[in-house]
Amino acid sequence: MNTAPGPVPVAPFTGPPRHPLDPDPTRATKARAVFALGLIGALTGLFIGGVVPATVALQLARQARREAYTSGGFLTGAAWLRRGERLAWTGLVLVAVAVVAAVVVGVIRLAEAPYGQDFAPNVN
Predict the structure, then answer these.
(1) Do 17 and 66 meet the contact criterion of CB atoms below 8 Å apart?
(2) pTM for this structure?
(3) Is the dihedral of CA 97, 99, 105, 111 positive or negative?
(4) Where is the composition biased (Pro residues) (predicted)?
């Protein structure tokens, strides 16, 4: 028996055979929602309006992670979840910066305001 010279073709390993009733891996729809809400939270963070979508994104991310864990690997989208969570935290940090800046500006303006009644210069 003669064999042809050269490397032997190897079939790619696809892992253990799947059961025919196993569902196909799909991206979690909550992962897209977390990313979109995180993006909105980050974009509107300086306007204080980003706190609502950012907190909703973090709550959805928690639910999506729990669902992905219980699905046994059939729900994907972990990268979208991570990006959405980072954007949501960025939005919350921007909200905190905006609130602190508003408080500082308010305190400075209050300190510069005249105290008591302001009389004309010719009044004793």
Answers:
(1) no
(2) 0.73
(3) negative
(4) 1-18
Mind listing the pLDDT tens digit for each residue in 2-41?
666 667 666 565 666 767 777 788 888 999 999 999 999 9
Cα angle 19, 75, 67; round to 5: 115
Beta bridge partners of 86: none
Residue 54 identity (one-letter amino acid): A
Cα dihedral value 101, 102, 105, 106, nearest 10: -150
What 3-state class would DSSP assign to 72? coil
Ranges of beta strands (E only) in the chain are 26-27, 75-76
Q: 81, 64 in Cβ contact below 8 A? A: yes
